[in-house]
Amino acid sequence: MTKHQLMVHLTGHCESATRLASESRDRRLTLLERVRLLLHLRMCSWCTRAVAQIALLAVASRMPPKNDAPLPDAARQRIAQVLQDME
Amino acid sequence: MPVSCAGQSWPWSPLPDRVDSLTVENPGSKPPNVGDPALWLAEHGDALYAYARGRIRSDDVCEDLVQETLIGAWKARTSFAGDSQVRTWLIGILRHKLVDHYRKTSRQKQPAPSQDARSQDAPTPSQWPFDDHGEWKAPPGKWGADPAAALAEQELLKVIADCRDKLPATLAAAYLMREVEELDVPEVCNLLGVTPTHLAVRLHRARALMRLCVEQGWLEGRK
């Protein structure tokens, strides 16, 4: 049995490990799930990398854009008109 | 520098709890910033637009969201608690409009309801990073020595936005509500009308597809 086969046997394949990692962002995993995930990540550098990248993307997704374009003048005037009609 | 007025100090908020005391000197004019959508537009229009653009690519949609936010704010103006900043309050309303927008777009593209809910948003095998055995088709690439430093790169944010646009609508809605707006799981399930198990499937798919798409798009751009 290769190291990889042993890992799959003990902790599941990479797809299910990343699924568990995904779920860990949304709910508290059971003890068994946590052990499986941590064991898998200890043995699998690919999944470890992917899990870190997914976390990085979530942080980046929440960052405000740097080159803020201002609200275009045409839209500003249109909205101002709508607001005026409403008052 | 804290300013004290009528026994209250406002170290940071430009808005007092009660505005009527400020308007005495200038009767007939509107108090600054409070209850005037035209002023909200003038002072916060750019910020609202930029916030929306950080999440949605379409300029038209972002403009509409700014408009809806200001209309919503006007209708709900009595709910404004004077101790919070107008901008914070407006952004809060905008976030509700954004979530509503994600929900609507995810509903629009729903296929026939007879289909199994789980297969609806299943990615095609060619897009999916795992093979039939659940193994990586290709190893996840290294994103530079210090991935966190990548956050400083505007290019990465652009690729992320492109990839979010490419997600199937149902997956994008789940991803945006959960990862970007950080709503809690029961709320997202409620908004999207799915079970927690199904949401977990969607989020797993969305995250895996996002990772692969960003990797491909980003590494491509650096060649």
Describe what this molecule looks like in 3D.
The complex is a heterodimer of chains A (87) and B (223). Chain A has 87 residues and is mainly α. Helix content of chain A is 74%, strand content 0%. Chain A contains 5 helices and no strands. The longest helix of chain A has 17 residues, at 45-61. The termini of chain A are far apart. The model of chain A has no long low-confidence stretch (mean pLDDT 89). With 223 residues, chain B is an all-alpha fold. In chain B, strands 1-2 form a two-stranded antiparallel sheet. The longest helix of chain B has 27 residues, at 196-222. Mean pLDDT of chain B is 78; it is low at 1-33. Chains A and B meet through helix 2, helix 4 and helix 5 of A and helix 1, helix 2, helix 5, helix 6 and helix 8 of B.
Keywords:
heterodimer, A: 87 residues, mainly alpha, 5 helices, 0% strand, B: 223 residues, two-stranded antiparallel sheet, 8 helices, globular
SSE order and pairing:
The complex is a heterodimer of chains A (87) and B (223).
Chain A: H1 3-11, H2 14-24, H3 31-43, H4 45-61, H5 73-86
Chain B: E1 3-5, E2 8-10, H1 37-53, H2 59-75, H3 86-108, H4 117-120, H5 154-166, H6 169-180, H7 185-192, H8 196-222
Antiparallel strand pairs in B: 1-2
